[in-house]
Amino acid sequence: MPSFFTFQQGNDPHGATNDSSPLLGRFRAVPDVQRYSRRSRGNSLLPSLGGGLGFGTAYHSVFGHGGDDDSDEADSDDEGEGVVRRLARTSKDLWLEPKQAAVGRVVDKWWTRWAVLVVMPAALAVAWCALPFPQYELPDDDDLDGLRYDPNASGHKIPGHGPAQVEINFWFFLFVYYGFYNITALIWITKVFNIYSLNWWPQSLGFPLTVSVIAAISIVAPIPVYYSPTATFLLDHNTTWICWTFFTMALPLTIAFAILLTHERHLGLRQSLSETQRIFTSSWWTGDTDTIVARDRPRRPVVQQSVFDPDSPLEVTLVSDSVYRTHQRNLTLRKRWIPASFVRFLWFCTALFIGMMAYVLGEAYAEVYLRTLPHNTIHTIIYVYSWVITVHLLDGLVGWILGGGEGERVGSYPLGWIFKLYFSLTYQTYVRALYARLRSPEQFIYLQILSSSFLIILAPLTISKPFHYVLNLLSINNQPLPAYQKFCARNIFIRGIAENVSMLAFLGSILVLHYGSNKDVYPYFSFEAVHTLPSPEQGSLPIGGGERYDLKLTLWASTITWACEIIAGWVVRRILWYGWNVDVTGEAKADMGMLPELLPTGVVVMVHVLQNMLFSIVRLKFH
Questions:
Q1: In 126-192, which ranges are E strands?
Q2: Whole-angstrom Cα distance, residue 107 to residue 110?
Q3: For residue range 415-462, what is the model confidence (pLDDT) as tens digits?
Q4: Which residues pair with 28 in a beta bridge?
Q5: ∠ CA(543), CA(547), CA(548), 5° rounding?
Q6: Residues near 408 by beta carbon (within 8 Å), at least 6 away in sequence
Q7: Which residue(s) pair with 168 in the sheet?
Q8: What is the C-alpha separation between 182 and 252, in angstroms, rounded?
Q9: Which end of the chain is more exposed for a tag (fewer CB within 10 A), N or C?
């Protein structure tokens, strides 16, 4: 047989695709082991001693190093550019249109990784709460009604609950304080949709106009309530504003759902096939304008025996109308089927709805905690770990919905990464908030012993092969062991980031609010020294006699707690490396390098969650 084409075997410089490579959302990540073997790992915050699972820090091709041609070209371009233009291009490559090379260079060094993942979100949240409110003294009638709290009357500290200490300017709160809070929430929703690869805004309007209209609605809607004498009291409750933000965040979800329904994306067949498309389908030969499965295609009518009678007169048999009606009915039923892409979107909406409900529940939880102060040690532990159980249940449900590989409900690894960070930080921020009301070092010690012990014991246990076998046996997890261990490493890294950014934001906020002008607006972080506390016989003090909580105790105990958390995280990473050859930091660097959208989305999520914690403890009473 003659040869029409000549084929020459080529060489793939990156090697063949390995089936064991992890699926990161809709992309298959291929390790570059040869390049990685020549790279040094001395730049890591917690340097490891090897290559992990083989699909972690092996993605070194996305990190900018001097030996790469792309990096050399970028460096030569930077020399010819001005500082402003270079900064603008870097900001675009990191935050607006993230690129693998730019994100990889940032997360490869431990100090730049800490700067963007820990320092930046905490600094933005602290700067937001430090914006000075225009404040006014409470009117005299409030004092007559006994609504203003006088610490000298009872000898207690100013509580973080109950009546407000000052009145604040409504317009400053609405346009500046609440405006920034809402804009951050809308950016978070948009970034999540970006990872899902779906635009939630109408194409005819565009993103800037649509998001501006939603932001304007969220700002203008509370104004009539402020001027209504019968409804203005609703604005003094934090839960009202939280619920309104929940509605604002749900608008993009509703708009995207309406757009899909308008374009009939929920239908199995949305339009007829073109003549060119029908050539490659059975509809060309059957005369159908739409394609349906073979079992739904109408069969030939029953042929009469007279057709084969040679003596019978010639006659033409037409297809009865019932056959055409059957065909149209089958086609209609076919169009009622919901395609898999629309089902995936419904799962995505469910996960996003649960995530938004989490911070509403957190606000209600914080309200209950504040209204029942003070707490002894047992009550504090019950509060902390009941919230731990609630957050972990929601986290597990959302993780099950999002999945981690193709063929699952959503099947998006990057979305799972972001929502894991969201729930981890949501749990950590409310735990940090209660530190301001711990009255003795013993309470700090007990909480830290429980937290660090669980991490050091459970992390190696959950990543072990027997534990993975039990999960597979119970049909809880069907991932192969390497992919499962990658998820465990990801969770440990995210927990460390959540602990660090939440503690840094907590320490910064109590300093700024205690010494700043917003002390009376945030009475929860007020550490005023007053006369005496109730005696232990009254049963309101914690264990061990208890010291009164003040700024010095809170700062020192929180700093020591932070140091213990860092040490516990270091111990866990060393255990995982020596025991299972798992590189936690390397896996996280690989994720953010291969999926650069994780960096800006993660930062926005952290800022939003930190704002939720601070918003839940502000006392509102408008002038």
A1: 135-136, 167-168
A2: 7
A3: 999 999 999 999 888 778 777 767 678 878 887 888 888 889 999 999
A4: 23
A5: 120
A6: 402
A7: 135, 622
A8: 13
A9: N
